[in-house]
Each structure stands twice: as C-alpha cells, then as structure tokens.
C-alpha cells in the first residue's frame, strides 16, 4: 500500500524489539528452571544444605552416657535434651565442645509444661504452683525450687 | 508488641502486607483505562461532541501509564528482581499477566499518541535545528509524509488501535480486579464481581479525570469550555458512577443476605473498621452527592447556565475521583485489616509519611503525570484547535 | 536413610559428599553468631550478619531422591499440652525472626453457650499462662499449626515468578533467590502460614525442615515435642504409621471447604478451629 512507510517502520521497530526481548529472556532464565516443574530445581539443594542446629537426644548420648541412661527410665524419657537445654550447635561442633550447655533451673521453664491449665489434657502431670508448694496465694513463688525435689533427668513422681 | 489487636488473629496476620502503594496502583491503572475509554468513545464510537477531549484523554492515559509501575516497584521486597515477572512469568497467577499486558498496552498507547501527533511532529522537525530537530526527526521515524492519503492511513490505523485498545484497557485494569477477586482465602476480596467492579470504577475515575483536566486545562490556557463536551462527559460519568456504585453495593448486599461465613467478619469490618472510609467517604460523600449533582446536570440541563453546569460537573468529578480512591483503599486495606482466623481485627493502617511506601512518594507519583502532560503540551498541544484532521 | 559408617567419612568428605559429621561441623561453624545469641539469653535471632551462610549450591546428599518420597504430617490435638517446645525449636533451627512464626500454637476455651476465647500469646512460643475467661469452660484444647503443604495450594498458583513451588516429595517451598517479595502468596494462604521475612524481604514459611528430613532426621518441631503430638509420614514407605492413621481413623484438615487439599492432618479437631 502507498503512504504506509511510516507504519511499516514502526511495526519493524516493534518486532525487532520483541525479538530481542524474547532472545534476551532466554539467556536470563536460570539453569535448572523447569526441570521438575515451574521452579528452579537447584533451590531444593539449597534447602538441603542449610545447617543443622539440633542434633536430637541421640547426639547427646555419646558424651553423656550416664545422664542418658538415667533419663531413659524416668518420666522425662520422651523429652528431648535440647528442649530444656539448647540446640546441639550451641554446645558442640563435631566431637568437640565449643561452649557450655546452658542449664535453666527456673520455675518458668518447668512451668511451660507443668503449670496447671484447663486446656492441658488430664493425663499430663500439672500443678498449681502455690498449691504444690503449699504457699499462701499472696506469697511469691521462690525460683529454682522444682529441682530440689525432682531431679530433672529422672523426676521422681510419688 | 501489638497493642491494637481485637479478637483473635493468626500470629502471622498482624502485619499489613499491601500498603498505600498497592492502593495507588489500581487507582493509576484505572485512570489509564478510563481515560483511554473516553478517547475511544470519540475514535471508535463516533461521539463527536467529545472531540475536544480526544487528544487530551489519550495523552493523559499515556502519562499515567508511564508512572503505573512505580508504586509496584516501591512496594516489592526485591524491586531489582521485578524482571523475573517477564523472565519466568507463572501464568497461573494473575499478577504474572502484568509484564506482558503492560508492555503490549504501553506499545498500543504510544502508537496511538504517535499517530495522533505525527503531523505536528513532522512540522516541528522541519522547523527546528540541532538537537530538537534530531529528536523530532527520530520521533517521525524519518518519514515526512504528510499527504492526505498518509493521514487517511493514520486514521484507519488509529481507529483499529483504539478498538483493540478497549479490550486491552479492560484487561490491563480488569486483571487487577481478578487478582483480588480470585483470592479465595480472603473473605472480603473473593467474588466474581471484583474485576467488573474495578473496571466500572476505573472508567468512572477516568471520565472524572478528563472532566477535571479538561476544564482546568481550558481555564488555565484561557480558552472556552465546550458545553456539549462537558454535558456528554457528565452523562457518561453519571451512568458509569451509577453502575459502579450498584455493583459495589450488590457485593455487600449479597454477602449480608447469604449470611455465610464471610459475613461474620465482613459485617463487623464495614460497620466498625471501615465505617468512616466506606460508609462515610465512599458511599455517602463519594457516591450519593455526585449522584445528585450529576443528576441535576443531566436531568435539569435547561435550568442551568453554562458556567453553573460546568462547575457542578467539575465538583462531582472531583468528588468521584476521591470516591474511587476510597474504594481502592477500602478493598486493599480493608481486606487486610481482618485476620484469616475470621475472628479478629488489626488496628487500622496509617501509611507512613516518608519512606518507600509513604504518602510523600504517593503524591509524587500522582503529580508526575501532570508534569509530563505540561511538558508534552509545550511541544505538542493537547487542545483540540491545533489538530485539524483526525484530532 | 541410614547414615554411612563413620570410618570412611573422611574419604567421602573428600569426594564432596556430606556426612553427618561434616554437616555438624558446618552447622556449628556457620552458627557461631547464633550460638552467641542463644548463650546470652537473647531471644531475637538475627539473620545474616553474624551468620555465615551455608555454601550455596552445595550438592544434595547423593542418597536422597525427591521423587522417591511423599511426605504428610499429622497432629494429634488431644495430646498437645501447649508447652511451646516446638515453636522454640523451630525458631532456633530455622532462625525465624522474632514476631514471625513458621509454626505456632493456638489455645481454645469454649463454654457451653458456645462462647469462644482463643489466644496465641507470641504464637505460644513461651508456653501459656492461666487464663480466666469469665464463663465456665467446658471444652478447651491446644491446636498446633504450621504450613499445610497443600496439594492444591493457592500460594503456588498465585506466585507470579515461580518462586513458590511444589517439590516432587510433596512439600511447598519458596525459592529465596527468585522471590520478588510481592506478598501475593501471603495473601493467598488461607491459613496464615506465610510471612515476609523482615531481613531477606522474601516469602518465608515452614519448610518441614527440608535440610533435616532429607537426611533421615526428624523436623525440629517433631523432635522437640515431648508428647508425640506431631508426626511425619512418608506415604511411599510400606508400613508408614501416619499413612495408616490417615487411612483408617477419623482425621480432619483445616478449612476443607476451600479445597486446598492440605497434607497436614489433624486428629481430634473440633469445629471451632478455623
């Protein structure tokens, strides 16, 4: 058609840009993208290689045999060491100790599990602190008393 | 840590993720779509009384389109990665449509404006020297054909683009509505009506914008305001405003009537958290008053003098611009003020003043298109008298 | 997934394979900053600055094939005591920033008249205190929640860049390098499982401790729970306990009406839980 030179120039310009964009895009798509779905498959490996922080109770046993055996027979057998102490990574690296394991003897820690709450199932041993310690309601609860009667690794339950 | 929570919220639900910037984005694209529709009313549907605003609305559409990505970039956690949306667009997500739609629509509007002003561009290229000549010669793509046949070709292409542009504008703004409407997790957003509400509301805001721009621009440049144009704009504005508000109310009324799970939280949301912004600003101030004002303009035309009619229409348009902003605010912010627990509310959101998602930046984004139009007008006039052919 | 015998771990390490020891070494070396934070008793975990990141693109343990596993999760509500050990363990294992939660516990107090009082103080991280509700409570329980790793998840569907995805082993993960931080997935999740990490500005959520389960370890939350509330199942395994429970007992999922097909099942869920 006559007198359409400007239209064609515009169209060619746009097409050129579109082609460049498509080609450029191809180079920008990361490798491993789309291998198993619409995502970058290498991301899985990145998640897998994140550092471990907790070791689990079995990671404590090699160095702390006696405590582990004592715990096994007590009521806290199912409580992981790291719950009351701290994750393995704080304390040891490989087979070397890097820092002392924190020891928390506070009433607050024991209360997180053993404070009497309506929502807690009855099968869970739970107490009202003042009742249990035979204190008046107005008396403050002294700290770090639980361990005096209940060795934490194998709490005796009467 | 969070003193202003009422009821029960999921612990992660205490943060509002989509801020003022995400309120602004649909507002801006709404203006884009609406202004384009006004221009199309002339170019495609032959509403000749709208000729005075045909160029203005096209350039306004482009100017707002240019700033549309800014609120999004300001909001993203990683704006530099925003290209991922075009590198690996996940098309099951409505948001992924943005890259392609924006690019296509921008191309379309740029072409439209170019064709509108091609003759003027050539004229300026011929009459200038140096850098200005180089610039305008490039804009003309090196073709200096101003013959009658060429103008005819321009006109035909423009009509085609304008016709294609209408669904394109609808998709550009409609996809935002769909983005909200398709989130089944959100009791306030999830409705098939959402894209329609957004679209009608967008056209309302666009027509209102053109009404305000046209009158202001004519006043500031010392020219007369075309009465038939304003009357026509008022009619279109009234019609779209009525449809918009009807749809917005329909959504709420349906929720209330069905009394399903959603209403448990949406009811208290509207009556307590959004009482001022929804009932007050969006409905009473923003909808009822312009409805009455425009009703006067449309139905009582013989009783009004031109200046009075123009003023009433101008006021109504201004209020409707606020109404549409309030609607965006209520949808975006309102939908995040309650928790997915369906049992609790966060305190109302107050945007920061400065900062990446603050009021200051929002104002700047909204003002930039006006600056663009002013600069544009210096070289390529927006008013109708300059264009003697296809307008 | 058995750990190879330790006597040739050095040889395997030289070949670039990951042994438990080398992993722990890397973990400890990389976490000196976190360790300092824990020892000083500060509960805010700082991501990044004091924390040396694991080498990017480290090879996956050669023995693990994602297509050979299909994980599901089970929560037994009747056993939960709301101690918060799981929340704390998750926070420490994954450096979850303070105020955000990859897992949390909700407490429900329900009276005969149907009055509900629900709370989750700091996600239940530090346990719960006694609560007086004013009405006689007839039913109360704790509900641990986490990402449900849904099979028909809206979060993957709505992610615009393919950052949120479903793994061959049935987890939902977020590619931290691809995520643009648009928060659409956070809006899309009906369960409130996701958040935008305040420092990386990317979407973050429970990863089912992928770095642990792919080595045959348990997730941090499961390991920490003293009552066996949480269980991980692998439906590919012949005698998988969790699969058996899901197939034979009355289990529930959260928000079933949304048809997200969650892979986190609940025993003992009551209708008040959303």
Q: Helical content of chain C, roughly?
A: 10-25%
H/E element sequence of chain C: HHHEHEEEHEEHEEHHEHEE
The gyration radius over C-alpha positions of chain A equals 32 Å
User: Oligomeric state of the chains?
Assistant: heterotrimer
The CATH level-2 architecture of the largest domain in chain C is identified as 2-Layer Sandwich
- Give the terminus-to-terminus CA distance of chain C: 36 Å
Describe the strand arrangement of the main beta sheet of chain C, using strand numbers: 9-1-11-10
Number of domains of chain C: 2
Order of helices and strands of chain A: HHHHHEEHHH
Overall morphology of chain A:
elongated
In short:
With 391 residues, chain B is an all-alpha fold. Chain B contains 14 helices and two strands; from the N terminus they run E-H-H-H-H-H-H-H-H-H-H-H-H-H-E-H.
Descriptors:
heterotrimer, A: 158 residues, mainly alpha, two-stranded antiparallel sheet, elongated, C: 274 residues, alpha+beta, Alpha-Beta Plaits, 2 domains, four-stranded mixed sheet, three-stranded antiparallel sheet, 11 strands, globular, disordered N terminus
């Amino acid at each position: 058609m006559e007198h359409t030179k400007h239209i064609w120039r515009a169209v060619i310009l746009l097409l050129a840009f579109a082609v460049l964009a498509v080609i450029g895009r191809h180079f920008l798509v990361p490798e491993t993208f789309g291998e198993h779905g619409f995502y970058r498959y290498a991301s899985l490996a990145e998640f897998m290689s994140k550092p471990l922080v907790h070791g689990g109770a079995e990671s404590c046993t090699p160095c702390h045999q006696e405590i582990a055996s004592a715990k096994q027979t007590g009521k806290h057998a199912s409580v992981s060491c790291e719950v009351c102490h701290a994750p393995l990574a704080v304390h040891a690296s490989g087979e070397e100790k890097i820092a002392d394991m924190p020891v928390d003897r506070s009433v607050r820690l024991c209360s997180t599990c053993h404070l009497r709450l309506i929502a807690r199932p009855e099968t869970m041993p739970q107490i009202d602190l003042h009742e249990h310690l035979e204190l008046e309601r107005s008396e403050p609860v002294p700290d770090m008393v639980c361990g005096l009667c209940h060795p934490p690794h194998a709490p005796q339950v009467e | 840590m969070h003193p202003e929570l009422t009821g029960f919220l999921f612990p992660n639900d205490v943060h509002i993720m989509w801020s003022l910037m995400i309120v602004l984005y649909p507002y801006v694209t709404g203006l884009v779509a609406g202004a384009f529709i006004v221009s199309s009313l002339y170019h495609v549907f032959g509403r000749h009384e709208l000729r005075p605003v045909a160029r203005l609305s096209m350039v306004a559409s482009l100017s707002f389109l240019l700033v549309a990505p800014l609120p999004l970039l300001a909001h993203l956690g990683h704006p530099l990665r925003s290209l991922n949306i075009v590198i690996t667009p996940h098309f099951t997500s409505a948001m992924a449509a943005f890259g392609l739609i924006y690019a296509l629509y921008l191309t379309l509007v740029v072409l439209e404006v170019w064709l509108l002003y091609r003759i003027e561009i050539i004229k300026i290229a011929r009459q200038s020297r140096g850098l200005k000549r180089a610039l305008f010669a490039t804009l003309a793509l090196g073709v200096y054909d101003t013959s009658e046949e060429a103008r005819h070709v321009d006109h035909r292409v423009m009509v085609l683009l304008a016709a294609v542009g209408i669904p394109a504008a609808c998709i550009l703004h409609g996809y935002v509505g769909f983005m909200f409407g398709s989130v089944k997790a959100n009791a306030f957003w999830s409705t098939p009506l959402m894209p329609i509400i957004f679209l009608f509301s967008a056209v309302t805001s666009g027509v209102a914008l053109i009404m305000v721009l046209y009158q202001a621009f004519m006043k500031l440049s010392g020219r007369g305001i075309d009465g038939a144009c304003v009357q026509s704009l008022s009619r279109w504005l009234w019609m779209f405003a009525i449809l918009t508000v009807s749809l917005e109310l329909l959504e709420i009324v349906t929720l209330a009537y069905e009394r399903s799970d959603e209403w448990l939280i949406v009811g208290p949301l509207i009556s307590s958290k959004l009482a001022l912004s929804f009932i007050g600003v969006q409905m009473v101030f923003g909808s009822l008053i312009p409805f009455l004002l425009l009703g006067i303009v449309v139905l009582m035309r013989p009783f009004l003098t031109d200046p009075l009619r123009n003023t009433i229409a101008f006021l109504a348009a201004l209020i409707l611009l606020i109404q549409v902003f309030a609607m965006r605010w209520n949808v975006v912010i309102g939908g995040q003020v309650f928790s997915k627990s369906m049992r609790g509310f966060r305190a109302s959101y107050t945007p920061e003043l400065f900062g990446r998602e603050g009021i200051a930046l929002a104002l700047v984004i909204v003002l930039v298109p006006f600056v663009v139009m002013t600069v544009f007008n210096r070289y390529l006039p927006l008013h109708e008298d300059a264009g003697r052919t296809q307008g | 997934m058995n750990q190879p015998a330790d006597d040739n771990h050095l040889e395997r390490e030289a070949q670039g394979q990951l042994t438990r020891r080398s992993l722990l070494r890397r973990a400890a070396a990389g976490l000196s900053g976190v360790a300092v934070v824990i020892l000083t008793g500060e509960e805010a975990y700082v991501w990044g600055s004091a924390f040396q990141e694991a080498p990017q693109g480290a090879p996956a343990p050669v023995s693990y094939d994602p297509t050979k596993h299909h994980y599901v999760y089970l929560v037994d509500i009747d056993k939960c005591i709301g101690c918060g050990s799981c929340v704390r363990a998750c926070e420490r294992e994954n450096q979850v920033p303070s105020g955000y939660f990859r897992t949390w516990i909700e407490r429900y107090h329900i009276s005969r008249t149907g009055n509900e009082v629900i709370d989750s103080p700091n996600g239940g991280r530090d346990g719960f205190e006694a609560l007086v509700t004013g009405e006689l409570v007839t039913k109360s329980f704790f509900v641990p929640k986490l990402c449900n790793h849904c099979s028909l998840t809206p979060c993957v569907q709505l992610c615009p860049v393919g950052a949120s995805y479903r793994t061959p082993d049935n987890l939902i993960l977020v590619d931290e390098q691809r995520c643009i931080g648009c928060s659409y997935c956070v809006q899309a999740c009906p369960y409130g499982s996701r958040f935008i990490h305040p420092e990386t500005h990317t979407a973050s959520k429970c990863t089912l401790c992928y770095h642990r389960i792919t080595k045959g370890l348990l997730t941090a939350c499961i390991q920490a729970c003293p009552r066996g509330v949480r269980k991980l199942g692998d439906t590919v395994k012949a005698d998988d306990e969790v699969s058996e429970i899901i197939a034979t007992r009355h289990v529930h999922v959260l928000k079933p009406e949304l048809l997200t097909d969650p892979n986190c099942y609940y025993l003992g869920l009551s209708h008040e839980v959303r």
